[in-house]
Design goal:
This protein is α/β, with parallel strands linked by helices. It contains 5 helices and 5 strands; from the N terminus they run ααααβαββββ. It has a 5-stranded mixed sheet with strand order 2-1-3-5-4. Strand 4 and strand 5 form a beta hairpin. Helix 4 packs parallel to helix 5. The longest helix has 19 residues. The N and C termini lie far apart (about 65 Å).
């Protein structure tokens, strides 16, 4: 019974995809699926359409995600970019909350927060926690 239900659901889903997509888009999509199916999840996401607006930014987020220490409470993105950057960062770094930089360099962040500075070389008094190919991960100064 379950196999029949799964087969019917798959057939219905395929019919909906075929009805809503242009036939010319199917071969390229099939090639992408075949190319990335056996790859690591981060590599599959990098090749997907959700990161197409800025693949280098996603690479930065993946590097940040892998270097965040236990006990980190939140991440602040610096500089503040478009909403789409915040949405992707919130997804990639979940369950940590992600905020955009809307503070001055003199605002004191909680000690368990980190700043992910995309494309920046720090010129302020925040301590460098990790240097990344696409930016830096900063720890707020302790005052």
């Amino acid at each position: 019974m379950r196999r029949a239900a799964a087969g019917a659901a798959a057939t219905l889903l395929l019919a909906l995809v075929l009805a809503s997509q242009s036939w010319s888009e199917l071969p390229p999509r099939a090639r992408v699926l075949a190319t990335f199916a056996q790859k690591e999840l981060a590599v599959r996401r990098l090749g997907g359409s959700g990161t197409a607006f800025d693949r280098k930014f996603f690479s930065f987020l993946e590097n940040v995600r892998r270097r965040i220490p236990d006990g980190t409470a939140a991440v602040v993105l610096r500089p503040a970019y478009r909403d789409i950057h915040l949405y992707l960062a919130s997804y990639a770094l979940a369950p940590l909350p992600v905020y955009v930089d809307s503070f001055s360099d003199h605002w004191v962040l909680p000690k368990d927060w980190l700043i992910a500075a995309y494309g920046e070389d720090p010129t302020y008094d925040f301590g460098v926690f990790a240097r990344l190919p696409e930016g830096v991960l900063l720890a707020p100064p302790q005052r």
